[in-house]
Specification:
This protein has 329 residues and is of the alpha/beta class. The protein is built from eleven helices and ten strands. The protein is 43% helix and 12% strand. The longest helix has 23 residues.
């Protein structure tokens, strides 16, 4: 089991101009403003991500296809260069396809919208193949809160199943392992583990091999809608059969319900995932034969962005030590 990372916005500081750095330090612009300007540039510079991965001993990178992104505009030559650079540095890649705007319509009640979403995601799967990605990860769509129950729910489940039966074979033909990730409660649907597993079982019953990229941070957002979460949230892993986690990638970050902040640095020990919880969680991942644990930390505060490299180092060291504890037995 190895530790990977989705760099999210952690490398945005690399691309700051002197003026932006000054404005940030004085509070004249926000981290979100920088994210809006720099996000595409940072995501496109996969070489930089690989260099930082090497620096901190990270063996896997999940490329972030969140909107906006540059990937559909990248040439085959650019993709091939990235693939070779990753291979030369013994770093594997996976791809997180978009999950907002058009892409979220994989579950749409409107067939035209659903088809558009599937066709769009296929284009990202094509890019994933060119980049040499071993995994593709997808959220199972989003539904407005007033269309999440009864007959609407039945239609949504039917439509996401249809979309997956089109996307999964397309991905498998390219030699890429397909993953489904549980939503946050704000997505309105498929945020419960059991609901996601039912979908995966239905797809795999057709002869496929979909894995479950559980995002425990997303699962913790249940507190936002009044569903109590245990002080030992890691025990949710016990409910997931090994067949859905064996050889899979999973996501890891923390969540604080009071402020509704997620993807917080793990070493802060804010939220329910304290050190002892993480040791037990990684032990459970190991027992279920998880292949890659992907950190999905993001920064929200100005001081954090300006010191993001230090945050990466501290969090990586923290989790590496925890992994050693988890692997003792």
């Amino acid at each position: 089991m190895k530790i990977g990372r989705d760099f999210t916005n952690l490398l945005n500081w690399v691309y700051l101009t002197d003026e932006e750095r000054d404005f940030l330090s004085k509070g004249k612009i926000l981290v979100s403003d920088i994210d809006a300007r720099i996000q595409i540039q940072a995501k496109k510079d996969v070489f930089n991500q690989i260099e930082f991965a090497k620096k901190f001993g990270i063996k896997h990178i999940e490329l972030d296809g969140g909107i906006p992104n540059p990937f559909l505009e990248m040439s085959s030559h650019q993709c091939e260069d990235i693939k070779k650079f990753a291979e030369d540095n013994n770093i594997t890649l996976s791809f997180h396809v978009p999950y907002t705007f058009v892409a979220s319509a994989v579950v749409s009640f409107q067939e035209e919208d659903r088809k558009l979403a599937v066709d769009l995601i296929k284009k990202y799967i094509d890019v994933s193949k060119k980049l040499g990605c071993i995994n593709v990860n997808m959220h199972p769509g989003a539904v407005p809160f007033y269309q999440t129950t009864g007959k609407y729910y039945e239609i949504a489940i039917r439509n996401i199943t249809t979309s997956l039966l089109e996307l999964v074979p397309y991905t498998e033909e390219k030699g890429i392992l397909f993953h489904i990730e549980n939503n946050t409660t704000s997505d309105g649907i498929l945020y419960e583990i059991d609901d996601c597993l039912k979908i995966i079982k239905a797809i795999n019953s057709e002869g496929h091999n979909v894995k479950f990229c559980i995002d425990i941070c997303h699962w913790l957002t249940r507190e936002e809608i009044g569903i109590e979460v245990s002080t030992s949230p890691e025990n949710i892993i016990d409910q997931i059969p090994e067949e859905f986690l064996s050889g899979a990638q999973v996501h890891l970050s923390n969540y604080v319900s009071v402020t509704k902040e997620f993807h917080l640095p793990l070493h802060y020990q804010n939220g329910l995932l304290k050190r002892d919880n993480l040791i037990r969680l990684l032990k459970k991942f190991k027992e279920k034969k998880v292949a890659i644990v992907i950190l999905e930390t993001a920064v929200r505060e100005i001081n954090e962005l300006l010191n993001a490299e230090k945050i990466i180092f501290e969090e990586q060291s923290y989790l590496n030590n925890i992994l050693k504890e988890a692997e003792k037995e």
